[in-house]
Structures are given as C-alpha cells and as structure tokens.
Amino acid sequence: MESSNFLRDVVIGMSDGLTVPFALAAGLSGAVDTTSIIVIAGIAEIAAGSIAMGLGGYLAGKTELDHYNTELKREYYEIENLRHREIEETKEFFASLGLDNEVQEKATEQIAKDPDKWVDFMMKYELGLDKPHPKRATKSAFNIGVSYIAGGLVPLSPYFFISTPFSALQVSVALTIVCLFVFGWAKSKIIGINPWWGALQVTLIGALAAAAAFGVAKML
Amino acid sequence: MESSNFLRDVVIGMSDGLTVPFALAAGLSGAVDTTSIIVIAGIAEIAAGSIAMGLGGYLAGKTELDHYNTELKREYYEIENLRHREIEETKEFFASLGLDNEVQEKATEQIAKDPDKWVDFMMKYELGLDKPHPKRATKSAFNIGVSYIAGGLVPLSPYFFISTPFSALQVSVALTIVCLFVFGWAKSKIIGINPWWGALQVTLIGALAAAAAFGVAKML
After folding, report:
1. What pLDDT digit, counting tens, does each position of B186-206 carry?
2. Which residue of chain A has the CA closest to B112?
3. From start to end of A46-168, where are the E strands?
4. Residue A28 and residue B48: Cβ atoms within 8 Å?
C-alpha cells in the first residue's frame, strides 16, 4: 500500500510534468526567435505546476483525513446516542446483501457487541471510507511536486544548450517521446493494463498536446 | 452521483486552470517587455494543459471501466469454476466482521444462491469496486478540459487588453485572487469542509505558485 501510493504520486506528477512543459516549449518554439524566453517560460511553468500539483495533492490528502476523522467521531456519537438507528442501518446493510431476517438480526447483534469493531464496520461498509495514513498528505505533496519537476526538466533540457528554438524542439521531441513511451509502459505495468497499448496512449496524449500548443502559438 | 461527478470534474479542471496559467503569466510578466509573448505562452499552456488533463481524465475513466469489466468476468468465472474458493472468501468476509461461524455459514449460503447478487457482492465488498458509468470517461474528459480552459482564460484575459506586462499583471492578480477565493469557497461547500478556510487555502496556493513563478523568472 505504501509503495503503491508512492508510485501513484510519481505517476500523477510525472505524466503532467512530461506533457505540459513539453507542449508549452513546443508551442513557444513556433512563436519566438530565441530559446532563452522558452527556458524562462518553461521554468516558470515547472515552478507553478509543481507547487499547484504538490499543494493540491497535500490538500486532497489533508481533506480526506479530516473528513475521515469527522465521520469517525460522528459514528462513535451515533452508536452511543442513536443506537436504535445505527442498529437499523446495520440490519439494512445485511438486508441489501439479500440475507434473510434471522441472519440480519444475528449478524447485527454480534457486530454491535464491540463498539470499535462496529464503528470500523460502519466506516468501511456504510460510508465506504478507508482509514488514510496520517503522514500521507505531506509525503504525497512532496512526491507529486518532485515528480513534476523531474518530468518537466526532460523536455526543457535541450533548450538550455541549443539556442535555435526549432533545433532545440527537434531534440526535445525525440527525447520526450522516448521518455513518455517508457513512462507509459511502466505506468501501465503498474496499474495492470496492456503496457504497449498504455505506452502508446500516454505518448499520443503528449504528442497531441504539443502539436496543439505549437499550432495555436503559430496561428497567433 | 451524476451531478457530483460533474462537479468533481469541474473542480479538477478549474483549480489547475486558474492556478497554472495565472502563475505562468505572472512569471513571464517579470521577464518580458510586451504582453504579446505572454498571451502566446498562456494560450499554448491552456491548449496543452486542457488536452493533457482532459485526455488524462478520459484515460483514467476508461482504465477504471476496463478494470471493472475484467474483474467482473473473472468473478463470474470463479463462482462457476472455483465455487469452493469463492465460498471460502465469502465466509472470510463475514468472519472479518466478527460474526460467529453459524452466521458466516448461513449468510454465505444465502448470498451464493443468486449468482448475479453474489458477484455484485464480491465486486463491491471483496474488491471494493463500484460500477463506473460507461459514458463517464468521455464526459469526464470534456468537462475537465473545458473547465481548464474556462479557468485559464480568467488570469490571461487582462493580457489581451493591456500591453504593459506589469499593468496587466496587477489586473490579473486582482481578478484571479477574487476568482480563486470564490471558487475555493464553492469547492469547499461541495466537499463539505469549512468554506472560508477552504477558500483561503485555494487562494494561497494560487498566490504562492504565481509568486514562485515570478521569482524564478525574475532571477533568470
């Protein structure tokens, strides 16, 4: 679970990091004469994007934890003070599974014996909430932000060394397409879909975004 | 459920749309002499970002649906061909709730009578998978993409009409801060957290991203 969360964060950060700065740089390559402005715009985008995504990830994790704790308190309050209603809700859960009245009664009676287990059950199956890790939010913010920076520096790196935008663009396209493909392949392996098909999809999104940005900038 | 998915997509698209193009434009305002390059970079970013996020949303939805259908087939196969093991797994679920052996047996027996209900049960409670809406992926892509564009045009609009970057930046900051605050307030209301605190958080992320982008671009 730990490692799958880590990988999920890297995937979130890196897929946008590889795609958006790549497309922005490609777009500007069609519109300006020197790569210095592309480097500035690219780095500004990476700074903005990594903060927005990283803090976004932090807040999402924080909100999830707050929400869980609020609901947890409410359930403890309810089994104490609205016991009758909670008994009804627990019975309804078993009824929804298609169990007969006798089994509903017995199961509810057994679950209701232990308050902690009962609340656990309500959290998980009535509300569909899993307990989030308390430190998750901070870690998640950091992992997503750093992955975005790492991803974004790939398409931008050729512009550091080559002063003609169109020459830098060619190297950036080649480099980024390879990275998108490898990244898409690895990502698909992790989430368990066909890796070649997944790699193709990720690469196509990146290429499409870059082509659109290039086209739009050229038009203006 | 329908409307909550729609709102979720709008929130995803708009929070990044308001933040990243805002920060990029702010960053470039510290580095260039004319707003025309900011408009080009901003529109290129909005094109790239909306495609990356929209298609990203589409693929996420598509993958979720594929995954659900694969697991659904597997469960039907298993209750047909590995009935004994599935009976064990169903019993284990009830055991994990703290129910005694008799109730485990009876509940399992009753659930296993109807194959469709049984598979439904396994999907939901053994695997924790909810049935995704088949058209979700396409709708989601569209909603996220359009929300990103709508969000992104807010901070960029002053640069269309004002030719001095720093003057445009001042209008953009005022306009976007107000929009971030209103958006953060509405978002917090929807997800059920304190709206003032939520609005403040969203606004601070936007401001921080813009300040970082401005600072980094100024340094270069």
Report:
1. 888 887 788 998 899 889 999
2. A98
3. none
4. no
